[in-house]
Amino acid sequence: QVQLVESGGGLVQAGGSLSLSCTVSGKILGINSRYWYRQAPGKEREFVASIDSSGTTVLADSVKGRFAISRGTAENTVYLEMRSLKPEDRAVYYCYLKGFWGRGTQVTVSS
Question: Could you list the pLDDT tens digit for every one of the 111 residues in the chain?
């Protein structure tokens, strides 16, 4: 059974920073691309960031220059560093891996 668990969400003022982490448990073979998505109230889930097996990252235009995705020293963990947060970044943030989703972590940004 593969499980993804996100953590690190919370309430922050606009301009502030948060660091999310996603840890995978269970049997996943190899180093896989990892993804972060988010879903704001009343909106569809949208892509935020990804990192592939070589470390190449892709960021959504809306977060470029503010967010960064990285892998931990333990390959089962991936991070999303978020800075200069805006009220429009408010959403539930989910990590994704090979068909599996975490339950998400809430990020709220006050103006």
Answer: 889 999 999 999 999 999 999 999 988 777 789 999 999 999 999 999 999 999 999 999 999 999 999 998 877 899 999 999 999 999 999 999 999 999 999 999 999
The answer to whether 26 touches 79, Cβ cutoff 8 Å, is: no
Pull the structure tokens for residue 102. 């975490």
Whether 82 and 17 have beta carbons less than 8 Å apart is answered as yes
At residue 10, the 3 state secondary structure works out as: strand
How many residues are there in the chain?
Answer: 111
CA distance 98 to 93: 17
